Amino acid sequence: MTAIDILTKSPLTKGLTQTEIEQLLTICEDLTYKSGECIIKEDATNRDLYIIYDGLLTIEVDTGGKKSSQGVKIGTIRGAGIVGELSFIDGRRRSADVVAKNDVQLLHIPYDTLTALMEQNNHIGYCIMQNTAKQICEHVRCANYELRNYLT
Fold first, then answer.
1. Would you tell me how many other CB atoms lie within 10 Å of the CB of residue 66?
2. In the 8-state DSSP scheme, what is residue 13?
3. What's the whole-model pTM score?
């Protein structure tokens, strides 16, 4: 799959025209990570977004050193999934590690250039903010289901 295919299928670009998706592509950077590499480190301060291109990512949180020196997996992202959306929206530190489960390719969307594009084209800005909010809702909903299953 090409980068334009990934962007077109991504929930981030729902509602954008093909021309707007092509504009977004111009600010994306194609990155490759090896299995086990950390893409986002918990507590980091950047606000960039990532869209998975190929491979599998795990979301892990630090348990304070209890039982393991590694984080506890709380989620998996694949197939045009978005990561980094919480910090993108609120500007706070990263809440979890994002680790490559296998070799992965990502589209990296830098915060500064994305927000400049969003300010330049209000339709792009509206769609990306709405779609990012929907992704956050989906992540919270999934976490609620997992928590309920764990507690029952």
1. 7
2. G
3. 0.86
